[in-house]
Design a protein that fits this description.
heterodimer; A: alpha/beta; Rossmann fold; 6-stranded mixed beta sheet; 4-stranded parallel beta sheet; 14% strand; B: alpha/beta
Chain lengths: 449, 453
């Protein structure tokens, strides 16, 4: 059965969101609302806020709304914890019809009280959902009163789903984080301490980076938000540097912390051998301490000797294969393009849910002529361009996996469901191995393409 | 780790901890996927649609296509009418489905969007259809949403045109495509003409062909749903997920409605097949009688392994009720039975079953897994039957878990294999007894390890 190209006449409103390098000019249409009626891979404000805040391990995350928003986010983010596990529970006010009519505040108050009595958490985060904004519950007031009653910070997360897109949710989450750390004691910057922003400790990734930095002589105060706790978040203002992995979710927090606390930040990336090397060197260099540079080079030398051969070994099998990338933010897409280059693979299609204009410009510089770049794609577009461009592999999240498989394409989850850490030198080796295992799997011998 | 549930009973008024249900729209989306060439449409924020597609993708491990009205603040203030009309136009232009099945969300319900009016005002191409169901997330559960969408199919499509088709309508309930396939197979062995709707077999268990087909070959055809108004009778399998739709069709098209338990276990399958036989006038096939004989043979062979074992069952109401009945048929002791879906009928019917069996048990509708965990903490059981979400309790209490129901997020293949019918009973029995025996092997001392069990 042939793909009927005529079925894919792109809708007019989408044409400016799709770009083919060398054929049509930038800018690409991005950071806009999705077209009504599209099968978008995007999510909502609540989703953005929830994924950023959920890894705070000892917080109560109470979802104020009907049950769905709590059900769908119950323990779906593979963030590892070194101890507390309250974040892996699902708490909901389970609003019912009568609450919609009479207001949900009374129920919310009862739920907060019951949760406090049951778990005595150090902090509670109360997520607003679509309906809360509409029925007019005053989350701020409820939280303020409950905070006074229980003597812990109880903070509303302004994440009504319709009030923007996932990026607005990231920002709402950053505001909450600023409120949390705003409650810390007077601080002074500790010279060799930094905060690691935009790592959610999926499969233990933040721990890998923390170990690297400690070896150099730099202490990580706290990761935002992978494996963070209330008390570690409070140490954030004492850092003398913020390093930012996922700029899409945490760029705002870094900027605000620079303004409020005078903490400078570096955008870094620990995806791939080259980016990891460069990032470690930049961090070591920042401190202007020759010992750090020395230790950094020693670490790089040792880790490269250990992991680079693994990457090169898989590269032999992968060179010349073609990859397609569809991820949440532009930052990760950029790193992945570079990382595939290390594997001798070309990225022939690259898209994001919420990439920004400047990220698309960088992407455009990095990719080869003819590469398709697209914002907020739907499954039909993904299918069309992956097939047209002859991709062997798709990198994406949960909704893209079965699509790739149906087309007989290999797949890597670079999202919540990754099974191995993909950060740092060891992560680059894991990534190469994962790409090899899926691209070169014998299972494709049974698929007629 | 992951054992924060206290032993002492916690009195909760409002708070839900670790839900055993989710919201209506996902059930509506699942039902709509069971119509041939249908695109489900979520009238609300983008996140709803994204979450439902993700959740269904994880359970079925297949692509889930659905569109969204992509609500913004403007829509929340001024109503979602223009979003829906634009959406309908765009969907037919780009994705070319035969039918769009719109379901609402808590947001569009609360702002009072009048969907039928918007649909009337929308441009619907000749020969295409748009149907809708109201699925407020703050009422019922995903099972209610499934039920409402099936009702919507009938309201919009089914017609009694006074041309009896001598067919039997089957509403299978919120079960896997593997179950729907099995129900159709049973009917085929009896040569019973039927219309099953919705039918996700061939949609969510479609084979890999190297092509992505937004509308796989399966699903009930629109003309079949229209023709359902001319059928002899409707068999609703499960009162919660299917009963309402059967009643709707009785009211609208005077098709007799017969509400049966989900055909899981021996007696429920017997009851289903006898009803089919009675209405269609066809005898229960020799093939099915043979299968029944086989499952009874297996039950006899293995009865010492499962009989008397205590079990906790949770999940969706129709499935849980029939599973409870099946475990009673096996001589097991269902100690705790819980569903997240609200409904007095659940507690009443399960209560009656257990009463008749003389079993002292706890039964709850509208419950959550925190409650189930508390019960188990106070007095443990030998086996837990339920969805993937049971794995936390299973781990904390060191109880084996048999995964049945929706969602199953951590294992594959389940959606292809049935739990309904005698074949399904055979599979359930294999799962239950193997799980118990695996546990026995794991725990056995060297001197107690047995080769032959």
């Amino acid at each position: 059965m042939a793909i009927n190209k005529a079925d894919f006449s792109l809708i007019k409103e989408r044409r400016n969101s799709i770009h083919s390098k060398g054929k049509n000019p930038l800018p690409i249409n991005c950071q806009t609302d999705s077209v009504a009626g599209c099968v978008s891979q995007r999510a909502c404000v609540y989703c953005g806020a929830r994924v950023v805040l959920n890894p705070i391990t000892d917080a109560v995350h109470l979802v104020h709304g009907p049950i769905g928003c709590a059900s769908y986010t119950w323990d779906i983010r593979g963030s590892l914890s070194s101890g507390a596990d309250l974040f892996r529970h699902s708490f909901s006010t389970d609003l019912r019809e009568e609450d919609i009519i009479f207001g949900g505040e009374a129920k919310l108050i009862r739920c907060i009280d019951e949760l406090f009595k049951l778990y005595r958490p150090p902090v509670m985060l109360i997520y607003s959902t679509c309906i809360v904004g509409v029925i007019g519950d005053d989350l701020e007031a409820v939280c303020r009163n409950a905070s006074e009653r229980h003597g812990i910070p109880i903070i509303p997360v302004q994440s009504s789903g319709f009030a923007g897109n996932k990026s607005d949710g990231y920002r709402a989450a950053c505001e909450v984080l600023l409120r949390i750390i705003g409650g810390s004691e007077p601080y002074s910057h500790k010279p060799y301490h930094l905060n690691y922003l935009g790592d959610y400790n999926l499969a233990g990734e933040a721990w890998i980076i923390r170990n690297y930095l400690e070896e150099i002589g730099i202490k990580v105060n706290v990761s935002f938000t992978g494996d963070s706790r209330y008390d570690t978040l409070l140490t954030a203002p004492t850092a003398s540097l913020n390093i930012v992995q996922c700029a899409g979710s945490m760029g705002y927090l870094a900027k605000r912390m620079a303004e409020i606390y005078g903490i400078p930040f570096l955008n870094i990336s620990f995806l791939g051998l080259a980016d990891t090397k460069e990032s470690l060197r930049r961090i070591a260099y920042f401190y202007n301490n020759p010992l750090f540079n020395e230790r950094c080079e020693k670490l790089i030398h040792r880790e490269m000797a250990r992991h680079a051969p693994v990457v090169y070994q898989f590269r032999r099998h992968l060179a010349g294969k073609k990859a397609a990338v569809f991820v949440g933010g532009g930052f990760k897409a950029i790193s992945l393009i570079k990382q595939f280059r290390e594997l001798g693979m070309e990225v022939v299609m690259v898209g994001t849910q919420t990439g920004r204009q400047e990220e698309y410009e960088t992407i455009n510089e990095l990719v080869a002529e003819g590469t398709v770049v697209l914002d907020d794609a739907n499954p039909s577009e993904l299918e069309r361009f992956m097939l047209e461009q002859g991709a062997d592999l798709l990198v994406g999240g949960v909704k893209e996996r079965p699509l790739a498989y149906k087309l007989g394409l290999a797949f890597i989850d670079h999202n919540h469901e990754r099974k191995h850490p993909l950060s740092g030198f060891v992560g680059a080796a894991n990534f190469a191995c994962e790409v090899y295992q899926t691209v070169c799997s014998p299972v494709w011998n049974y698929v007629d393409k | 780790m992951l054992d924060r549930t206290p032993y002492e009973y916690v009195n909760r008024n409002s708070l839900v901890i670790n839900p055993a249900k989710t919201c209506q729209p996902i059930g509506a989306m699942y039902a709509a996927l069971g119509i041939h060439r249908c695109l489900p449409h979520s009238h609300g924020s983008q996140g709803c649609c994204s979450y439902h597609r993700m959740h269904l993708s994880r359970h079925f491990r297949d692509p889930i296509a659905a569109s969204t009205s992509s609500f913004t603040e403007g829509a929340a203030v001024f109503g979602g009418g223009s979003n829906l009309k634009t959406a309908i136009k765009n969907i037919f232009a780009i994705y070319d489905p035969d039918i769009i099945a719109v379901h609402t969300t808590c947001l569009s319900e609360t702002i009072g969007d009048d969907i039928p009016v918007y649909i009337n005002q929308a441009q619907v191409p000749e020969g295409k259809a748009v149907i809708h169901a109201n699925t407020p997330s703050y009422v019922g559960s995903h099972i209610t949403g499934f039920s409402n969408m099936v009702k919507g199919m009938i309201k919009y499509l089914s017609v009694n045109s006074n041309r009896p088709n001598e067919k039997l309508n089957i509403i299978p309930g919120f079960v896997n495509p593997g179950d729907m396939r099995e129900i159709k197979r049973m009917l085929q062995t009896m040569s019973v003409k039927h219309i099953m709707f919705p039918d996700t077999s061939g949609v969510l268990d479609a084979p890999l062909t190297g092509q992505y087909n937004m509308y796989p070959p399966g699903g009930t055809k629109i003309k079949e749903i229209i023709d359902a108004g001319n059928s002899e009778a409707t068999l609703a399998l499960g009162s919660f997920a299917s009963g309402g739709a059967a009643d709707e069709l009785r009211k609208k098209a005077k098709v007799r409605s017969i509400i049966l338990p989900a055909p899981i276990g021996i007696r429920a399958t017997d009851e289903f097949l006898m009803a089919v036989s009675r209405v269609s006038g066809r005898e229960i096939s020799a093939a099915l009688e043979e299968e029944r004989g086989q499952i009874i043979d297996i039950m006899v062979d293995l009865h010492d392994q499962y009989q008397g074992r205590q079990v906790a069952i949770f999940g969706d109401p129709d499935i849980v009720m029939s599973l409870t009945a099946f475990t009673l048929e096996l001589g097991m002791i269902p100690r705790y039975v819980l569903t997240g879906t609200p409904g007095d009928a659940f507690e009443r019917e399960v209560g009656q079953m257990l009463n008749q069996a003389g079993i002292d048990a706890r039964v709850k509708a509208g419950g959550d897994l925190f409650t189930l965990h508390q019960w188990i903490k106070q007095e443990s059981v030998d086996l837990l039957i339920g969805t993937t979400y049971g794995k936390y309790i299973a781990r904390a209490e060191d109880i084996p878990l048999v995964r049945v129901g929706f969602p199953i997020l951590d294992r594959g293949v389940h959606s292809y294999l049935p739990i309904v019918g005698y074949k399904g009973a055979m599979r359930l029995l294999e799962l239950i007894s193997n799980t118990l025996l695996d546990r026995q092997d794991r725990d056995a001392l060297d001197e107690d390890l047995e080769l032959i069990m």
